Amino acid sequence: MNTILLGVLPVFSIIAIGWGLRVSHVIPENAWGPIERLAYFVFYPGFLIPAAWSADFANGSAGALGLSTIAGVCIVAAGVMAVRPFLTITGPSFTSVFQGCLRWNSFVFLPLTVALYGARGSGLAAIVLGALIPAINVLSVLVMAHWGEGQGGGVKKSLAGLAANPVIWSCVIGLSLNLLHVPKPEIVMSALKLLSDAALAVGLIVAGGGLSFIYALSRPVLIGAVSAVKLIVLPLIMYGLCRALGGDATACGIALICGSAPGAAASYVLARQMGGDAKLMAGIVAFTTAASLVTIPVLLAIFGVG
Questions:
Q1: How far, in Å, CA of 306 to CA of 302, rounded?
Q2: How confident is the chain (306 residues) per 10-residue block, as mean pLDDT?
Q3: Taking a C-beta distance cutoff of 8 angstroms, is the pair 182, 150 a contact?
Q4: What is the pLDDT of residue 60?
Q5: Per the count of CB atoms within 10 A, which of 41, 96, 162, 245 is most buried?
């Protein structure tokens, strides 16, 4: 348990610093957008490219991890769709419920994985990101297109943005270099290491800066139910599938962290773009982030995978 807390608490401490910087206006409001873009388009590729480039795909656990996380998302998505007729909420609110049950904050997932599992964990994390981000975004866009109010940016614009997603093309570049067995020049890897270190710290500050607790308790029953699915049901499904598919302790731990990572600020942006309930989405993201400080270490301790 001490090892888990040593990995988890520093991560959430930096998230808290980010939130504090936002509410205290130490960093001006108009500076947060450029900081997030810097992290997303520069620092993140600096982490993901070498992680995928160095990953060991010969290990059977890589396949088990990728399949279990994809299958877990599909199972929960199908479950949420199945209960839609029984929910007394509007279409836009349902889109936020759907995103809240599935979408996860990679700015939290990556540092936790690296803190607990080191270099091997970063390689497996790249696999998860490359597999899940396209799948979850496509599912979310389709749901928004059907139930979102007014359609905002529209399906084509959203899917075009998905194709330009730096996380996706960074994983593609790293995987290509890996499969082609391209040598790793020391000067290149050293430069990428500097970007990688910045990605983890700046990403967490951005995650904290994006939190808004104003609406977190506005609909406690609904937000609580969505949070339970996201922070408990999804990670248990992913962990169980990974273990059933033969994943080792590291892969199973990463599956658990992946499923239990809190909601992503990107879901709030999509809700605004495509007519979702943005206020409800902001509440879900804030509440799951705060609650995951408890649920993540508890789940890791229960299953002994930290």
A1: 9
A2: 69 88 90 84 84 71 90 96 93 93 87 85 84 82 79 57 72 86 90 84 82 80 95 96 93 94 80 80 89 92 78
A3: no
A4: 63
A5: 96
CA nearest to 130, candidates 250, 8, 45: 45
- Amino acid letter, residue 205: I
What is the tens place of the pLDDT at every residue in 18-27? 899 988 999 9
**Which residue in 207, 235, 244, 195 sits closest to 101, CA to CA?**
235
C-alpha 44/C-alpha 160 separation (Å) is 20
Residue with tokens 């059977």: 60
231 located within any domain: yes
Number of domains in the chain: 1
Q: Any idea what the CATH number is for the domain that residue 251 is in?
A: 1.20.1530.20
Distance between CA atoms of residues 157 and 154, nearest Å: 6
142 neighbors 102 (Cβ within 8 angstroms): no
Q: For residue 170, which of 106, 84, 76, 225 has the smallest C-alpha distance? A: 106
Give me the count of residues in the chain: 306
CA distances from 281 to 77, 131, 271 (A): 17, 24, 7
